[in-house]
From TrEMBL:
Gene3D superfamilies: 3.30.450.40, Winged helix-like DNA-binding domain superfamily/Winged helix DNA-binding domain (1.10.10.10)
Cross-referenced SMART domains: HTH_ICLR
Domain of life: Bacteria
Keywords associated with the record: DNA-binding, Signal, Transcription, Transcription regulation
Keyword match Transcription: yes
InterPro entries named among the record's database cross-references: GAF-like_dom_sf (IPR029016), HTH_MetabolicPath_Reg (IPR050707), Tscrpt_reg_IclR_C (IPR014757), Tscrpt_reg_IclR_N (IPR005471), WH-like_DNA-bd_sf (IPR036388), WH_DNA-bd_sf (IPR036390)
Domain IclR-ED as annotated: residue spans: 69-251
Species lineage: Bacteria, Bacillati, Actinomycetota, Actinomycetes, Micrococcales
One annotated GO biological process: negative regulation of DNA-templated transcription
UniProt-recorded Gene Ontology molecular function terms: DNA binding; DNA-binding transcription factor activity
Entry protein name: Transcriptional regulator, IclR family
Signal sequence, start to end: 1-28
Presence of the UniProt keyword DNA-binding in the record: yes
């Protein structure tokens, strides 16, 4: 693409970004006004985007929305698993640096699904292998993610006492108890789990945030709870790894800690 086409490409991407931000289709005049573009340029770019199926024109409403090609791009992004690709080398470095097992988990309903497990030779075998699901309220990764979610979303995930699962007869049993744990997590700046998953083992975790500030994963390290350990150093490494991943996903730190 020649340099003369660069501004047009940038404007087209700006239009797609604007359409993605709106919950409903948008009028061309609104697009032109919000982006500060001439109406003629806006209509020309919209015509090209519609022809290429990145946008769709709704003539009855005189508005534009995202097209099927934009959906296909998003699906391809998901298929390529960029989070796991970005996270794996960083999880390897994290495990090497702290000398303990490190893992990455994503929220799956009220549970967390472990997608990466980096083990250190000689360390205890864990139940958090890749593909394993555990209640989010019992894991450091899950608590870090939940602490970064809006209160309404947490309430929707745990609408009643029946939604809470205990392990070894421990863990939050109600939304009130969970909120207390999440408040402590936010105040501390990272999540902690001690013996809830496996007696004798503890974990610390921090949330990975995407470009919108939404928590997409939790980075955690698990270690023997009864050992004399410099936990501050482990916490620093975990938070540093989560912050680095967040930055790679487009998150711009504005003073918010990715514990969440």
């Amino acid at each position: 693409m020649g340099t003369s086409n660069a501004p047009a490409a940038g404007h087209a991407l700006a239009i797609l970004t604007l359409l993605a931000r709106h919950a409903t289709p948008v009028a061309a005049a609104t697009i032109a006004r919000e982006l500060g573009l001439p109406r003629s340029t806006t209509y020309h770019l919209l015509t090209v985007l519609v022809e290429q199926q990145y946008a769709v024109h709704l003539p009855e409403e005189r508005r534009y929305g995202l097209g099927v090609a934009a959906y296909e791009l998003g699906s391809a992004y998901t298929r390529q698993a960029p989070l796991q690709r970005l996270a794996r080398p960083r999880l390897t470095r994290l495990a090497d640096a702290c000398g303990h097992n490190a893992h990455l988990a994503v929220l799956h309903g009220p549970d967390v699904l472990y997608v990466i497990e980096e083990r250190v030779a000689g360390r205890p075998s864990l139940v958090t292998d890749a593909g394993v699901r555990l209640p989010a309220t019992l894991t450091a990764s899950g608590l870090a993610i939940l602490a970064a979610l809006p209160a309404a979303q947490v309430r929707a995930l745990f609408p009643s006492r029946e939604a809470f699962v205990q392990r070894h007869e421990q863990g939050p049993r109600s939304l009130v108890e969970l909120r207390r744990v999440l408040t402590d997590t936010r105040g501390r700046g990272y999540a902690v789990e001690d013996g809830l998953v496996t007696p004798g083992l503890a974990s610390v975790a921090s949330a990975v945030l995407d470009h919108s500030g939404h928590p997409v994963a939790g980075v955690a390290v698990t270690y023997p709870a009864d050992r004399d350990l410099r936990i501050e150093a482990v916490v620093r490494l975990v938070r540093q790894t989560a912050a680095e991943l967040s930055a790679r996903l487009g998150h711009r730190d504005q003073g918010r800690s990715p514990v969440g």
